[in-house]
Design a protein that fits this description.
- The chain is α/β, with parallel strands linked by helices and 389 residues long.
- Helix content is 50%, strand content 13%.
- The chain has helices at residues 16-30, 45-62, 66-85, 99-108, 120-126, 135-150, 159-169, 192-198, 221-233, 248-257, 272-281, 301-308, 321-324, 339-351, 353-370, 373-388; strands at 2-7, 34-39, 93-96, 112-116, 153-156, 174-175, 207-210, 238-241, 264-266, 284-287, 313-316, 332-334.
- Helix 1 (16-30) crosses helix 16 (373-388), helix 2 packs antiparallel against helix 3 and helix 4 (99-108) crosses helix 6 (135-150).
Length: 389
């Protein structure tokens, strides 16, 4: 089968959607299929700047959300042109990764399957890009409905998103949980000391790793808020963030207020390969997601990667995280926004490495069994074939 994966966002970029696309492509190709990827990055830099990003910035100055709508509609137009330009490759199916790309692909006439990664409108509200209940939010949600009703088949990355799509549009999707390349993410704990020397991380310090985009729904302020309590029992602990986003300023404020500069490292956005190394050199990984403007974490790729890498995991009991972690068996779940619970669970794993390793081993076995990119690619193919029928 010839498959085109398309997105109106940049590719590659630091984030779960980009990781999903790369990993799905690897799984489909491993099964013998031909896969191409088209994205906003394939548009000329001049067109991106002059027709999408520049006007978006100016329009948002007049009314919050107006520029976001403009930008996405321009991206839809660009993606439609790119898909049309590549029709000679005779793709069997387009797998669109967002509603705007879905609408672009439908216009091309190529059979279209849509993957739903999140609550597009609610996420824009959560990030502060538009106001809840505004005209712009209504336009965005109407676009979601149009895309979901127009595509041939829908895949959602967890059960809650399947329910969301059904409630919003009346369309029944198929839930296929997120997944990882189980060969790319595997335990490398024997290389911990070597990797710490490579990245200038204290060989003897207990390391807490937060591999998260720094945005509100990812709850990234809470590890910093919990750190003072962790330091009472583990005084040499180090907290390392890998990611960028609008919550960076909030984290810096917390670090300064509690005088945590010697214990917190903010790496910014780093490559996926670098993130793999930090999983290996860490003692505990935190995925502290929270509810935000109706948005919940899906089947978190960061959590799956941590579990696949053999790193003990502490996550908040929200959304898809509750579907993949069995509390006390293959990770620890804590109440969202509960600084005390997060601190206690983190300190417990740092002080009881044998128990953490036991959980990590069970987590790795679960990933191999249920969250392999090959197994997921087979499920995607079933949906593609159903769409073609």
């Amino acid at each position: 089968m010839k498959i085109l994966i398309a997105t109106a966002y940049d590719y590659p970029h630091a984030g779960g959607l980009s990781t999903h696309v790369a990993t799905l492509q690897a799984g489909l190709e491993a099964l013998g299929h031909e896969v191409d990827v088209l994205s906003f990055s394939d548009v000329s830099p001049v067109s991106r700047k002059l027709l999408a990003q520049g006007p978006s910035f100016l329009l948002n100055k007049f009314k919050k959300g107006k520029g976001i709508i403009w930008s996405h509609k321009m991206r839809q137009r660009f993606l439609k042109a790119l898909i049309e330009k590549n029709k000679d490759k005779q793709y069997d199916v387009v797998n669109a990764q967002d509603p705007f790309t879905t609408l672009a692909a439908i216009e091309s006439g190529i059979p279209t399957v849509s993957t739903v990664h999140g609550y597009m409108t609610f996420e824009s509200v959560s990030k502060g890009s538009m106001d809840e209940g505004s005209t712009e939010a209504k336009i965005m949600q109407d676009i979601e409905i149009q895309a979901y009703q127009g595509t041939r088949k829908i895949i959602t990355v967890d059960q809650r998103l399947r329910d969301y799509v059904k409630d919003l549009s009346g369309v029944q999707g198929t839930a296929v949980s997120n997944f990882i390349d189980i060969h790319g993410f595997e335990p490398k704990k024997t290389k911990k000391a070597e990797l710490r020397k490579t990245y200038n991380v204290d060989v003897n310090a207990p390391v807490i790793f937060v591999p998260r985009r720094l945005t509100k729904k990812n709850g990234v302020i809470y590890p910093a808020l919990a750190l003072p309590q962790v330091l009472k029992s583990v005084p040499n602990a180090q907290l390392i963030y890998a990611g960028s986003g609008e919550a960076l300023a909030n984290i810096k404020e917390i670090v300064a207020e509690h005088k945590l500069e010697k214990h917190v490292t903010l790496l910014g956005a780093v490559s996926h390969d670098t993130v793999k190394d930090y999983y290996a050199l860490s003692d505990v990984v935190l995925v502290p997601s929270v509810h935000s403007a109706g948005v919940e974490e899906a089947t978190s790729i960061s959590a799956l990667e941590a579990m696949g890498s053999g790193s003990p995991l502490v996550a908040c009991a929200v959304g898809g995280l509750k579907e993949i972690v069995i509390n006390g068996e293959d990770g620890i779940l804590v109440e969202e926004k509960n600084v005390e619970e997060l601190a206690e669970a983190t300190a417990y794993l740092l002080q009881n490495p044998d128990k953490g390793q036991e959980m990590a081993d069970k987590a790795r076995a679960k990933i191999e069994k249920d969250y392999s990119h090959i197994a997921a690619a087979k499920k995607y193919l079933e949906v593609y074939e159903s769409a073609l029928r």
